[in-house]
Write a structure and sequence with these properties.
With 224 residues, the protein is an alpha/beta fold. Helix content is 36%, strand content 27%. The structure holds adenosine-5'-triphosphate. Adenosine-5'-triphosphate binds next to β2 and α1.
Length: 224
């Protein structure tokens, strides 16, 4: 099975206020079409790891591969492009632009990538909104929709550049159980129907137990 993401002996230190070895020898991979979750106590290093895996933090030791390509050591400019094209993100907070419409919010990362025409981007955005069952919201301002809907729009935005992996940092952390389950079902649908790979940091045991694999962290290490 082909690998979408691979971390090989990743170590990370924070140097201030004192030297702190926050991640120790992290090695694991995510296969194409796999839905994995990362769990662990507060402070175990989950967000720090996700920040490295998402190519936003380059200050680490070890190697990182995305779609079998070594991305460690690449320039910030190259990484920015690789990230925009290959990785979708969903955070606990939606970070939508409240004065823009739902459709415009979803179109934004594709405009930034600059590979398609406005018409093509709009078409793709509408298709994704349909898949997530929120196409009726397209023209609404992001400030005028509910919390659960905002998170679905954030997922749509994360998908617009057709990433090979979707990463989430507590994507259901702000949602009630109904909307959390809804987000899980969307992720599962994307995996089953489109072969998308997913890696989600979560504190929600119900959510994690339904994923293909739980990666458990403690004190900066993977323990199972
Ligand atoms: N910029 C920083 N400088 C120094 N230490 C940091 C920095 N950021 C995080 N830490 C420390 O690194 C450790 C790991 O933090 P991290 O946020 O990755 O944990 P986490 O598992 O995601 O926690 P949570 O579940 O609470 O979000 C913690 O002890 C934290 O205090």
């Amino acid at each position: 099975m082909s690998l979408v993401l691979e971390a090989n002996k990743v170590n990370k230190y924070f140097r201030k206020p004192v030297l702190f070895h926050v991640l120790t020898d992290i090695s694991f991979n995510v296969k194409k079409g796999e839905f994995a979750s990362i769990m662990g106590k507060s402070g175990s290093g989950k967000s720090t790891l996700l920040y490295i895996l998402s190519t936003m933090d380059t200050d680490y030791e070890g190697e990182l591969y995305l779609n079998n390509e070594l991305i460690t050591g690449k320039s910030h400019q190259e990484l920015s492009r690789i990230r925009n094209k290959n990785i979708g993100f969903v955070f606990q907070f939606h970070y939508l632009l409240s004065e823009f419409s739902v459709l415009e919010n979803v179109m934004l990362p594709a405009r930034k990538l600059g590979e398609l025409t406005e018409k093509e981007i709009e078409h793709n955005a509408m298709e994704i909104l349909k898949t997530l069952g929120i196409d009726k919201l397209a023209k609404k301002k992001a400030s005028r929709i509910s919390g659960g809907e905002k998170q679905r729009v954030a997922i749509a935005r994360a998908l617009i550049n057709k990433p090979s992996i979707l990463m989430g940092d507590e994507p259901t952390g702000n949602l009630d159980s109904y909307n959390s389950e809804n987000v899980f079902n969307i992720f599962k649908q994307l995996k089953d129907e489109q072969g998308l790979s997913l890696l989600v940091v979560t504190h929600d045991m119900d959510f994690a137990q339904k994923t293909d694999r739980i990666i458990e962290m403690d004190d900066g290490k993977i323990i199972s």
